[in-house]
Amino acid sequence: MLTSKLAALRRKKGLSQEQLSNLSGISVRTIQRIEKGIVEAHVTTIKILADCLEVDVENLLGADPSATSETVTNANKLSPAFHALALAGMFFPVLNIILPGVLWLIKKDDSINYDFHGKQVVNFQLTMSFFCFPAILLMIYYFPLGFPLFLLLYFYAITMSLINLFKSIKQQPTRYPFSYIFFR
């Protein structure tokens, strides 16, 4: 999955394997083995390479023409669960963060996709929770403004979670706008 994509992005950037090695601190031999598909890169290695190539991790992991659909399906089979757990938790305070957060902590080392989706969901749910606190305070002191603001935030969070749930099921890129990045 990462093999020719890494080589293509490296060449597009105009870097040799040696130059990428100097930038990233990853040995030339490791880069060669990853590009040839001899080894599967560790999550932290992929993150370092993505930073050096100035691309998103998801872009670096983009579908490879030589990858079989079975490999891609197996690598992404739990990705929708992160978005679904956030939705399930939306009806019980704090579980919208705890449920996907626990799954992310358990599965983040299994796949870079799990790490990516888990961080994305947890970051968004934390952001929405922090935005809801002022809305709740405003609702206490000035209900006509606080209540509609709270509802707007709540339904925005549900809508974005649903959209990204369906995108992850279809294996399309997911995105949560207005999300602060707590976990990189």
UniProtKB/TrEMBL annotation:
The keyword Transcription regulation applies. This is DUF4870 domain-containing protein. Residues 6-60 form the HTH cro/C1-type domain. InterPro entries: Cro/C1-type_HTH, Lambda_DNA-bd_dom_sf, MamF_MmsF, TransReg_Diox_bact_type. The chain crosses the membrane at residues 81-106, 126-143, 149-166. SMART domains: HTH_XRE (SM00530). Signal peptide: none annotated. It holds the Pfam family MamF_MmsF. It is a multi-pass membrane protein. Keywords: DNA-binding, Membrane, Transcription, Transcription regulation, Transmembrane, Transmembrane helix. It is found in: Membrane. It comes from Pedobacter helvus. PROSITE patterns: HTH_CROC1 (PS50943). The lineage of its organism: Bacteria, Pseudomonadati, Bacteroidota, Sphingobacteriia, Sphingobacteriales. It comes from the Bacteria.
